[in-house]
Amino acid sequence: MDASPGSALPGRDWHPAVTVASVVVRDGRLLLVEERIEGRLVLNQPAGHLDPGESLVQAAVREALEETGWEIAVESFIGAYQWHAPGGQQYLRFAFGATAVAHDPARSLDEGIERAVWLTPAELRARAAEHRSPLVWQVAADWLAGRRQPLSLLQWLP
């Protein structure tokens, strides 16, 4: 039996949070959200939880629209990331590369989202203390390094 930290034990109900995130690039800038978490303003990619009945790509498109007002076109799969948060929750994040298609400035953003911002990679890196999690920079850095896989790596069987 695997007794490593965070491993599921027999009889224990364990479910990591499945999330999606998108690196959206326009004119050399990355689309981020400033969101308030427990009173603290943090930076994150447009990201959120996978909802029942949707594919990972559908979730990425929906989350970007809900959090930024931007319609996006998902073009590539950056990678899958597993993170164990300090509070004990575990996350499995699927990250995508996307382009901005159209913006609806009148659209209300999700609760907790203060605003969408476009930052250069250097500006994002300089604000590392404000990142919601280490996943924010890791996903961006992987995209910047050219990590882009075809969407065909992901299979959805509804």
> What is the C-level CATH assignment?
Alpha Beta
Mean pLDDT rating: 93
CATH superfamily name? Nucleoside Triphosphate Pyrophosphohydrolase
The number of helical runs is 3
Question: How many domains comprise the coordinates?
Answer: 1
From the alpha carbons, calculate the radius of gyration and give it in angstroms: 16 Å
- State the CATH topology: Nucleoside Triphosphate Pyrophosphohydrolase
Low-confidence stretches: 1-6
Helical proportion, percent range: 10-25%
Give the end-to-end Cα distance, rounded to a whole number of Å: 33 Å
The CATH architecture can be given as: Alpha-Beta Complex
* Quantity of strands, as a count: 7
Outline: globular
| Alpha-beta content class | alpha+beta
Strand content: 35-45%
Output the helix-strand order: EEEEHEEEHH
3D structure, described in words:
This protein has 158 residues and is an alpha+beta fold. It has one domain: Nucleoside Triphosphate Pyrophosphohydrolase, CATH 3.90.79.10. Helix content is 19%, strand content 40%. Strands 1, 2, 3, 4, 5, 6 and 7 form a 7-stranded mixed β-sheet that branches. A hairpin with a 2-residue loop joins β1 and β2. Residues 1-6 have low confidence and may be disordered.
Secondary-structure map:
Elements: E1 17-26, E2 29-37, E3 40-44, E4 47-49, H1 56-68, E5 70-84, E6 90-103, E7 113-119, H2 121-126, H3 134-144
Parallel strand pairs: 1-6
Antiparallel strand pairs: 1-2, 1-4, 2-3, 2-7, 5-6
Descriptors:
single chain, alpha+beta, Nucleoside Triphosphate Pyrophosphohydrolase, seven-stranded mixed beta sheet, globular, disordered N terminus
